[in-house]
Design a protein that fits this description.
Order of helices and strands of chain B: EEEHEEHEHHHEHEHEEHHH
Largest interface: A-B, 44 and 44 residues
Strand order of the largest sheet of chain A: 1-4
Number of strands of chain B: 10
Distance between the termini of chain A: 29 Å
Oligomer: heterodimer
Distance between the termini of chain B: 30 Å
Strand order of the largest sheet of chain B: 6-7-8-3-9-10
Radius of gyration of chain A: 27 Å
Number of domains of chain A: 2
Structural class of chain B: alpha/beta
CATH architecture of one domain in chain B: 3-Layer(aba) Sandwich
Strand content of chain A: under 5%
């Protein structure tokens, strides 16, 4: 058993080094990760040292607040680790249990091996070191608190890792249907965004003094919440140094017990998932796919409705896939999400909601910026058939621009009715300008995506495992979408220049309504122009690079 | 009809270093390849390969694993750019107008190279419309193909739900939907059941009879011998022999000829530890079993008889 576990841990590092040898990008990625890791550890040490300078032991109220804040932030951190693990990391592609299926390793040994392999990784080591160095913050509270934190550090990492592994394993095992995966992916994304709003929920604007808003934390609500979460696996580890400082050894032991029990239960749960997967792994690909895919379709579906041309075929294929691909759900969530979030923040200033619409439209096509990677090796069919790059781009743009237009206009109509802006003519003009801008931004973003998806591709998880991680994705995925995100405003340079010209010429003062309306139209035209340019340029690039794209996609498929 | 190719005259082993082909490409051939070279990093996969495939032939490309068959087919069909050499399809250079060449041919994609979340019918319609065919015509042909390949009942099912054999058939159908003049099929009968395989063969033979050219790559010699009119044996990125099946077989069995040209056979390796459990078990067949004692626990053994009848070891010669 020990030998098997040690082999799995060794294998993890052997695969890491092999990946580095194979690809320069991977090596660069690891170096960047290592630099970030060292920065995090040093940052934790500095933060701990600085916090330790505060006279926390002398002021009971301040200590109570600090205690509550640490437990609360720590709990949110654990939850975020789990959600991000689920969303962005998932089950690693190299050390999946399936890879060990042939070797007859007992479930428990394999589960333990995979857990320890995870714990031997850089994030876990950084986590333990960082949390241990945070103990410097408690040096003013005495050695008991410091030792409590040093004990809490590995417990926190092991608990976070165990919970993540259990959740990922459970999701991979239990959420099988395509529809279920789509829904679950959407829920996780929403959960991450909502958690990021938790800070806002616990703060209150206590005074408005002219333009200055002072924000204070609702200490009472935080105390109650953190008191509760300190008895859960999420917050227990963060309470340990405070228990040690106060000499509450009973609660200290109880919390350690909760953490240990969590690890054991997670381990048992992960092993059960492993067993479940192993027992259902005997199903043929067809059978398991049958369980995971939706029912059969009658007739031609979208192929009957799209244009009777090669680009129509591409649009119909893409439309059919968008409905069945959990990974591309964000396309449909983004604008609605931004509108809802900005709605919460608007405090009655309705143009803020319209800005949410514009922002959502801007981010809507981040996935399309890597659209060919989502197509995967299926793109081979286009290469075999000798479809021109422009035909491909035209088909995609036709569909996506139509969807975006319908979606944004429907959403705009909803906001218009909901906010009651239609009652005010001036406000309605401003809203219409913002709708023009939203449409323009989405077109420009789509146009840029059609170019970028040919040149800056990064691996995506396979369609049947949206919660898995292809190797080398993290670095590229972190960087490449930014090119589109930051590039889209750059394509709006003509609108910006014209806006400045209008400002300088005094148009906004002389006829503000008409200026705003005109600016909306300019933004819309700007977007349409970029879309046309992107479609053309993307097509040219795809013609030149279609075989390189195919090679890259084949490379991604082998990850 | 036999074509004389400098680097690969029928039945003659290829000379060591690559010699440039003095014979110009044959515009009358369905496919005419000259001096094709492709290297991946430092490994030369295709090394000056030359071959002519006559129009209307059923051409088999055979060779051991890693011989360069798939790489050659990929370069001939515009899916991989060669480092050197030329490929002509029906008199047109492939790489000067690659999309034109692609329209003339039908390449069978592999199972992972298709959009398997489409239904069988949708996939065929997609393949046809991609090639600029009108929807009504594509739909009509798609239904014909589904019926011919026994996939009518699965027309509305997603391809991901198909068995391996069904997937192979739908992939083949996508290559045929536009009625190409040349069909290029990489291992088309792998995982296809014998009945479907026979039906497919009939379709392909009929297609070749009407003037179409079928090029298949395969490891199965018997199949190539039975179906193909012509064959080329590829080894180490070059053609060892090419011509009609009878010419290449040179009066013997094609498989024997293949073995002789490709080489690589060796005496059966004896791995002492690979003993099927006989070396460690208490009642191994090659160990003396006491009369009346079961050779396998729980199973009676005939008195005095070995539990497993011993067979004479086959010599490598016998295996050949």
């Amino acid at each position: 058993m020990t030998e098997s576990i040690a082999t799995i841990v060794r294998l993890r590092w052997a695969l890491t080094f092999a990946a580095m040898r194979k690809s320069v990008a991977q090596t660069v990625g690891y170096v960047i990760t290592a630099v970030i890791a060292v920065s995090v550890v040093i940052g934790a040490a500095i933060a701990g040292w600085m916090a330790g300078l505060l006279p926390i032991g002398d002021d009971a109220a301040f200590l109570g607040s600090l205690n509550a804040a640490v437990v609360f932030v720590g709990s949110v951190l654990v939850l975020m680790i789990i959600l991000f693990q689920l969303l962005y990391l998932g089950q690693g592609s190299t050390l999946t249990p399936g890879k060990f299926a042939l070797y007859g390793i007992p479930d428990r040994t394999l589960s333990l091996g995979l857990l320890l392999a995870g714990l031997s990784g850089m994030p876990a080591i950084v986590g333990v070191l960082g949390m241990m160095l945070w103990a410097l913050a408690y040096r003013g509270l005495g050695s008991a608190a410091v030792i409590g934190q040093i004990i809490a550090a590995p417990l926190f990492v092991v608990v976070a890792m165990s919970l993540s592994k259990l959740v990922v394993a459970a999701v991979s095992s239990l959420v099988r249907s395509a529809r279920g995966k789509n829904l679950f992916y959407a829920i996780v994304v929403l959960a991450v965004i909502l958690f990021s709003q938790v800070g806002g929920a616990l703060t209150a604007r206590t005074a408005i003094d002219g333009s200055v808003q002072t924000v204070s934390v609702r200490v009472e609500s935080l105390l109650v919440v953190s008191d509760v979460v300190s008895w859960t696996p999420f917050g227990a580890a963060f309470q340990l140094p405070f228990d040690a400082f106060r000499g509450d050894w009973g609660p200290f032991a109880a919390r350690v017990l909760i953490l240990v029990a969590t690890v054991i239960l997670c381990f048992m749960g992960s092993t059960a998932c492993l067993r479940h997967d192993r027992l259902t792994a005997g199903m043929s690909a067809g059978q398991s796919a049958r369980a995971s895919t939706t029912a059969s379709a009658k007739g031609l579906g979208a192929f009957a409705r799209m244009a009777d041309s090669p680009s129509g075929a591409i649009a119909a294929r893409l439309f059919t896939y968008l409905k069945r691909d959990a990974r591309q759900t964000m396309l449909f969530i983004m604008p609605l999400l931004f509108v809802v979030l900005m709605g919460f923040q608007s405090h009655g200033v309705t143009p803020v909601i319209w800005m949410g619409l514009a922002m959502g439209s801007w981010f809507m096509f981040l996935g399309e910026g890597n659209g060919l990677a989502y197509d995967g090796r299926g793109y081979t069919m286009e290469v075999i058939a000798g479809v021109s790059g422009f035909t491909d781009r035209k088909g995609r743009v036709h569909l996506l621009a139509s969807l975006a237009t319908a979606y944004i206009l429907t959403l705009a109509l909803g906001i218009f009715v909901f906010t009651g802006d239609w009652r005010d003519g001036d406000l309605a003009s401003l809203d219409m300008a913002l709708v023009g801008m939203a449409l323009g931004l989405s077109y420009a973003s789509l146009g840029l995506a059609e170019v970028l998806s040919v040149v800056l591709m990064y691996p995506v998880p396979p369609i049947d495992k949206p919660f898995s991680t292809p190797q080398g994705r993290a670095v590229a995925q972190g960087f490449f979408p930014f090119v589109q995100m930051l590039g889209t405003p750059l394509t709006f340079l003509p609108t910006g220049v014209l806006a400045i010209v209008m400002g300088i010429s005094g148009m906004f003062e002389s006829s503000p309504i008409w200026s705003v309306r005109l600016l909306g139209l300019i933004a819309l035209a700007n977007g349409v122009g970029i879309l046309a340019l992107g479609t053309w340029l993307g097509g040219k690039l795809l013609d030149m690079r279609s075989l390189s794209v195919l090679k890259t996609l084949n490379g991604f498929a082998s990850l | 009809m036999t074509y004389d190719i400098s680097a690969a005259s029928v039945g003659q082993p290829v000379p060591g270093p690559f010699m440039p082909a003095p014979v110009p490409p044959n515009p009358a051939a369905a496919v005419s390849i000259r001096g094709l070279v492709k290297a991946f990093d430092r490994k030369v996969a295709v090394n000056g390969l030359a071959l002519d495939i006559p129009v209307g032939s059923f051409y088999g490309l055979v060779g051991p694993n890693g011989a360069g068959k798939t790489t050659t087919l990929n370069m001939a069909t515009g899916l991989l750019r060669p480092d050197a050499g030329s490929v002509m399809i029906l008199g047109h250079d492939v790489w000067s107008d690659v999309n034109r060449a692609k329209r003339e041919i039908g390449v069978m994609p592999q199972g992972e190279q298709i959009f398997d979340r489409l239904t069988g019918l949708q996939l065929l319609v997609y393949a046809g419309m991609l090639r600029g065919m009108k929807r009504d015509e594509v739909v009509r042909r798609a239904h014909d193909l589904l019926a011919a390949f026994d996939l009518k009942d699965a027309a509305g099912k997603m391809v991901v739900d198909y068995s391996a054999g069904m997937t192979k058939k739908i992939c083949l159908a996508t290559a045929m939907i536009h009625s190409p003049r040349i069909l290029v099929l990489d291992e088309p009968f792998e995982a296809v059941d014998p009945v479907s395989s026979a039906n497919l063969r009939d379709i392909l033979v009929e297609y070749a009879r009407t003037g179409g050219t079928v090029i298949i790559s395969s490891h199965v010699m018997a199949l190539v011998e039975k179906m193909c009119t012509h064959v080329a044996i590829v080894n180490r990125g070059q053609v060892c022999a090419a011509g009609t099946v009878d010419e290449v077989a040179a009066g013997g069995e094609l498989e024997d000829r293949f073995m002789a040209l490709v080489g690589g056979r060796h005496a059966a390796a004896k791995l002492d530890w690979l003993d099927g459990g006989a070396g460690s078990g208490p009642a191994a067949p090659d160990q003396p079993t006491a009369p009346g004692q079961p050779a396998v626990p729980g199973q009676p053994a005939a008195s005095g008889q070995p539990a497993v009848p011993s067979q004479p070891a086959q010599t490598p010669e016998a295996l050949r």
